[in-house]
Amino acid sequence: MADPRRRGQRGRRSGGRPPARAGVDAPRAAAYEVLRAVRVDDAYTNLALPPALERHGLSGRDAAFATELASGTLRRRGTYDLVLAACIDRPLAKVEAKVLDALRLGAHQLLSMRVPAHAAISTTVDLVRARAGGGPAGFANAVLRRVSERDLADWVRLVAPADPRGFAAVAHAHPRWVVDALAEALGPRADELDDLLAADNAAPRVTLVARPGLAEVAELVAAGGTASPQSPYAVELAGGDPGAVPAVGQGRAGVQDEGSQLVALALASLPLEGADDTWLDLCAGPGGKATLLAAMAAQRGARLLAVERAPHRAGLVRRSTRPASPGMLGVVAADGTVPAWASDRFDRVLVDAPCTGLGALRRRPEARWRRTPEDLTDLVPLQRSLLSAAVTAARSGGVVAYATCSPVLAETVGVVEAVLAERGDAELVDASGLLPGVTDAGGPLPGTLQLWPHRHGTDAMFVALLRRRPGDRIG
C-alpha cells in the first residue's frame, strides 16, 4: 500500500479543523490515537478505530492504511517489543509509553508493510517530536534505523527461542501460553498450529447476515457480496462500508461473523418434541445472536427473551433486536446465574458465555496481550454456573446451546463435562449433523462442534448442545 502521508491531509472533510498536529499525517495520527486508547482506556481496537477515522476525516485508502497500521501493530506487538528491546540499551519499561507506542507503529511499517524505510522512519520521528519533543525524536530515529537493518524473518530468527512453540510464539506474535493452549485444543491435529496462528493474524473478512424474514441473501449479493456455503444467511462483502448497504442501514441485515451465525443456527435446527415457542438468550449482549434468533423465532411463531447483566449492554441488545421485535418477548437486565424467571420454562436456551475470546483474535488483536492464564480462574466457574442455570431454565425435553468464542479446553469440554457430571437431568446431544454446509468441525467431545479460522474462515466458536432429560423437573 502506498504511503498516504500527504494524501491523508487532503482527505480531511472541508470545513473541519486539522485533525493532526503539524508534521503528523492524518492516517498515522489516527492509528496512534487507537494505540493510546487501547493502552490507556482498555479500549477494543475494532471499537476505537471508527471514531478515530471519523475524527481525522479518513476514508478509502487512507482509512485502510490507518486500519492496518493500528490493527497490525497491536496484533504483532509482542514480536515488535522483542525487536525494539534488541535495539535499545535500556528496558522497554523505561521508555516513555507514548514514545513506545510510536516506535511500535514505526516497527510495523518497517517490518510488515510496504512503506519505504525512509518514510517509515521520518514519519515516526515526526510523530514522536509532536507528541514527546525533540530529544525523544532523536532517540526514535536512532532506534528505528537499527530496526531497519534487518527484515522481519531475520529479526525473528535472532530474538525467538529455539524450541518450536517458542519460535512460533514470536514468529506469529502470540503469547507462549496462548500457543500452548491452542496446540492443546487442536489435539491430534496440532500440526495445523502454524496455519491457525497465521489465520489469527489475517484481517477478517466482512461478513453480513441476512436476518430471516427481514432480508434476503440475494439482496446482499446484489449489493456486492458473495453467498457462503456454510451459513444460509451469510454473505461476504467484497469491500466498502457495510453501513452503506441499505438492508444493513435499516437493521434488516447486519455485520456478523459467520461462526456466530452458525451457533444460532445449530440451536434453532435441533428437532424438539412438544412446544417450541419460548426461547432464551442468557448472555445476549451486544445483541447479534439475539437478533438472529429472534428473527428465526418470529418465523415459527416463537419469541425470545434476551438477558444481559450489564444495563448499558442490555440497551445495545434492545437497539439491535428492534427490527426483529415480532420475535421478542423482551430484553431484561439481569444476572443469568440468579434467574429472574421460572424454571422449566424455555424450549431453547443459548449460553454464549463470557470467555477469554482467544478464538476471535483476528477481530480483537489486543486480546492476546491482555489475557492471562489466571483469567480462567474466574471465567470457568462463571461459565459452569451459567450453563447449569440454562439447564434449569429449560423445560423437560428442551435444549441448551453452550457456546464460546474460545477453543481453550478448560472453557469448552471442561465446562460441559463438569456440568454433565454435576447434573443428572442433562444429556449431551449430537450436533454433528445440524450444519450440513460445514465440514471438518468435530469438537473435542464427541457430538460437539469446533469451528476454526484456518479451516472455516470463522472465529473459533465452540458449540455443545445439551437436552433436559424428558420427564425430569427441578425440585
Automatic annotation (TrEMBL):
Bilayer-spanning residue ranges: none
InterPro entries for the chain: MeTrfase_RsmB-F_NOP2_cat, MeTrfase_RsmB-F_NOP2_dom, NusB-like_sf, NusB_RsmB_TIM44, RCMT, RsmB/NOL1/NOP2-like_CS, SAM-dependent_MTases_sf
Single Gene Ontology BP annotation: regulation of DNA-templated transcription
One MF term in the entry's GO annotations: RNA methyltransferase activity
SAM-dependent MTase RsmB/NOP-type domain location: 179-469
Keywords, in A-Z order: Methyltransferase, RNA-binding, S-adenosyl-L-methionine, Transferase
Low complexity composition bias: residue spans: 16-25
Binding locations of S-adenosyl-L-methionine: 283-289, 308, 335, 352
UniProt KW S-adenosyl-L-methionine keyword: yes
Region annotated Disordered, chain positions: 1-25
Superkingdom, taxonomy of origin: Bacteria
Active site: 405
PANTHER family (alphabetical): NOP2 YEAST -RELATED NOL1/NOP2/FMU SUN DOMAIN-CONTAINING, RIBOSOMAL RNA SMALL SUBUNIT METHYLTRANSFERASE B-RELATED
Role, per record: May act as RNA methyltransferase.
Family: Belongs to the class I-like SAM-binding methyltransferase superfamily. RsmB/NOP family.
Name by which UniProt lists this protein: rRNA cytosine-C5-methyltransferase
Species of provenance: Nocardioides donggukensis
Organism ancestry: Bacteria, Bacillati, Actinomycetota, Actinomycetes, Propionibacteriales
